Amino acid sequence: MCGIFGYIGYQDAAKMVAIGLKRLEYRGYDSWGIAVISEKLKVKSKKLFVEKQVGSIGDTKTFNSKLLTLNSSIGIGHTRWATHGGVTKTNAHPHFSTDKSFALAQNGIVENYTELKSSLSKKGYKFETETDTEVIVRLIEDKQSLRSKDLKQKLASHLSSGNVNLKEAVRLAFLELEGRNTIILISNDGQVIACRNGSPLIIGKNFKTGEIYLSSDTLSFAPFANKMLIIENGQLVQIIDKNITISDLSSGKVIKNKFEDIGFEAEEVEREGFPHFMVKEIYESPYVIEQLVSKDRKTFENFAKIINECANVYTIGSGTIGVAAAQIAFYLRLYGKKKVISLIGADSVEYLPLFKKGDLIIAPSQSGETADVLEVLEKAKQKGVKIASIVNMPGSSMTRLSDYKFMMQAGPEICVMSTKAYIFPIAWGYLISKTVQGKYDEGIKNLITLADEMDNWLKQNKNHKDIKFLAKKLATKKDIFLLGKYQNFQIIREGMVKLIEGTYKHAHALPSGDLKHYVITLIEKGVPVIVAISEDIVKQDLLNSVHEVKARGADIIAIAPKNHSDYNTFIQVPDCGQVSAIMNVIPLQLLAYYMAVELGNNVDKPRNIAKSVTVK
Ligand code: G6P
């Protein structure tokens, strides 16, 4: 993760980079840093200044930094999600070179950083931080100064004056990095250089004003630029005096490129009177379902044929979206009658040799940049597997590598805890499964009713009052258990994810029937057990599990259409038939929300997590 941003133009670069970083904060908010070149000081060579701080960049309207006094027009910045090294000012990016001639920021992980660091240390390089990023800086310095004899020989042909130029040094250093990395650097002679291998990098340009932006995503600069150029893996960008040159990293050869229209408006997203983005986004779920049902029927019918023709079908995702991927697989098994396997992005290794031509992988993703998933998709694609993606972020890596591309149209999701971007793919999964079953119309009808019921439920104050009351009670508990089965199993898993993210408490979701095999040892008087029960074929099984934990003193909280004498707390939801499970997500999300508020946690930016995870 981490977000990187660059600006070259006529406005104050520090301010523009701060605005960009604010829009990228969903990628990490442990610390931020900005480097600019000051043209204020009338010195021969321009000077490079860096400011770094721990924490998020805060409100850009009141952004106050000494960098703002420097009249800079070129700058880069970084918003960090710490991987190597603690959350400190020293470890924050950008990192200066020893002679302060350039500063560099990175998004990724240098997987061979231990080896590189030890070889650079042997050559006498000093390290001030615990980051893998500083290794890249020193490696570039090494390439520049040609301390390595081997390199001197190799580069004899490149040399004009005994020193390798910065671009060439960056290129050579970058080629030695293992892992998924993207870097950006600014030098005191006014150059901005960036390289991509894995983590996203996009250039934006305003063709009227000539301003240039570099960023980890398009949304961050979309309000200011009208064209974009997506940098591919294995490419290097050099910008000097507003001239952009793209070259191939391995050969160094210049590549021709064409800017394309950004193709969407990125307005400033406001909370619109809601205290937090999370609750606003929960309220938007019915609208998200309406967006889905208004999509072209043909798209679903065509894709249903593809699913039917494929040998093996997999779904994949990480975190919340991994849970959504599992629910899509559930619906495809239940209604599509396809043997579909769901995978977790970071835990798919044993499947890699099994993928083969004729298979299909369905990947939902809010960002379309999740490294754990992208890596599996890239490997599967090489083996001839077809990829389908359902992505919320326009222009993402996942969309571009997909054979079948679906856009979520959930609108920007700002809260790091994902809510409406979980609802869209599971509703999509239900609809595509109904289409495979030959019952598209029934699927649409059920989803339209669901959107209405959900909207209605969200508008009733009593529901919020009840959940707030429950949140207050659960905020004092240490552990929370969640039970579900069949259509509700992945739903309570998502409830668990939201509770963990929002409350920093231990939550544990499990298939209700498995409870008696081990977890029941943990149930004692007063332990909260949340259960999602629908009016379906497994209702009685779930009630049996409820009896079993109730007998051991558990405090039962049921999300269900009908009350039962075993429930201590009853959160009533409408009976939405085949899509009941999707309805049940809403009270669980709201419970996590109200608990986070009750506990005084940072609701929209929970500690230690990020919205887009572009590292493995
Ligand atoms: C992070 C986020 C989750 C998200 C997951 C996958 O862990 O905190 O909310 O579900 O990444 O992200 P994606 O962009 O692929 O949906």
From TrEMBL:
- The SIS domain extends over 303-443, 470-606
Q: Which reaction does it catalyse?
A: D-fructose 6-phosphate + L-glutamine = D-glucosamine 6-phosphate + L-glutamate
Q: Which InterPro entries match?
A: GATase_2_dom, GFAT, GFAT_N, GlmS/AgaS_SIS, GlmS/FrlB_SIS, Ntn_hydrolases_N, SIS_dom, SIS_dom_sf
Which PROSITE patterns does its entry note?
A: GATASE_TYPE_2, SIS
The EC number(s) attached to this protein equal 2.6.1.16
Keyword list, A-Z: Aminotransferase, Glutamine amidotransferase, Repeat, Transferase
Q: Decide whether keyword Glycoprotein is in the record.
A: no
Which Gene Ontology terms describe the biological processes this protein takes part in? Answer: fructose 6-phosphate metabolic process; protein N-linked glycosylation; UDP-N-acetylglucosamine metabolic process
Query: A Pfam family in this protein?
Result: GATase_6
Whether Membrane counts among this entry's keywords is no
The record ties this protein, via SUPFAM superfamilies, to: N-terminal nucleophile aminohydrolases (Ntn hydrolases) (SSF56235), SIS domain (SSF53697)
Name it.
Glutamine--fructose-6-phosphate aminotransferase [isomerizing]
- Tell me what organism the protein belongs to: Candidatus Daviesbacteria bacterium RIFCSPHIGHO2_12_FULL_37_11
